[in-house]
Specification:
Blueprint lengths: L5 H110 L7
């Protein structure tokens, strides 16, 4: 290469670099456009997902309220049943004591009859 050829060779190399940079910029622009499209799809997907989650949460809250009402009703009914059973047991306790006393007396009479001599038995 002669000294006079150097600027021409340098210009050619610079021109090649410049052309490669323009091509690279075009590919970068295409990549950025695809990224923008991907971001838009993702944002739309997230919005739809958020709406679906909100809808499911509302539905779940509604079911929870219904379940709470059913449980509260059942607990209230159960408390009433326990009060009724407690009253029945309190009222029935004297009768139970009386029956136990009668059974005890009958057992004593049977035992007394069984221990009597044979001649005294009817």
């Amino acid at each position: 290469m002669a000294d006079g050829d150097a600027p021409t060779e340098t210009n050619r190399i610079l021109l090649l670099i410049w052309n490669e940079m323009k091509a690279l910029n075009g590919r970068i622009d295409q990549t950025n456009a695809r990224l923008d499209q991907t971001n838009a799809r993702l944002e739309q997907g997230f919005r739809e997902l958020r709406q679906e989650i909100d809808s499911k949460l509302d539905e779940l809250r509604h079911h929870m309220v219904e379940a709470d009402v059913r449980v509260a009703t059942a607990v209230t009914d159960l408390a009433g049943d326990v009060r009724v059973l407690s009253r029945i047991l309190r009222e029935g306790r004297p009768q139970l004591n009386e029956h136990e006393e009668r059974i005890g007396r009958l057992e004593q009479r049977v035992e007394a009859l069984e221990t009597r001599p044979s001649a005294d038995r009817p």
